[in-house]
Specification:
The protein is globular, with a radius of gyration of 15 Å. It is mainly α.
Length: 155
Amino acid sequence: MSRQHHPQRKDGVDPVTRARARRRALQAVYAWQMSGGEVGQVIAQFAHEQAHEIADLEYFEDLVRGVVRHRASLDEALLPFLDRAVEEVDPIERAVLRIAAYELIHRLDVPYRVVLNEAIETAKRFGSEHGHTYINGVLDHAAIEWRSAEAQARR
């Protein structure tokens, strides 16, 4: 068994390539936030690197395009759970929150626990020292409201 092959789940989702897609999406969303560039160019720049590191390209592109397309409504949805304006949140953490909000609201095929865990792991890896704690608090409250039936079933 080669190192690059991971056993797939019944739904065909490979959690390892998904996790890589999320990390790349974070970098792309961060770059887009900083440059305000055209989303197609940002995706092309990161998709090229993506090809060298087996990742779920389709998911990567969906996350980046989804965040860019729905930024206003995602920011509005996040606001009640933040202690400051969205633009005042650290840029890395803002990108993590936007991606997670997109997944929680628009990708109901992804369990909310997976979204939260991935966001926290990504924040630990790329964010500030205590950023993951902030991300956890915000998303925990948001998930209870946005995915109430799923969250209730888990408690």
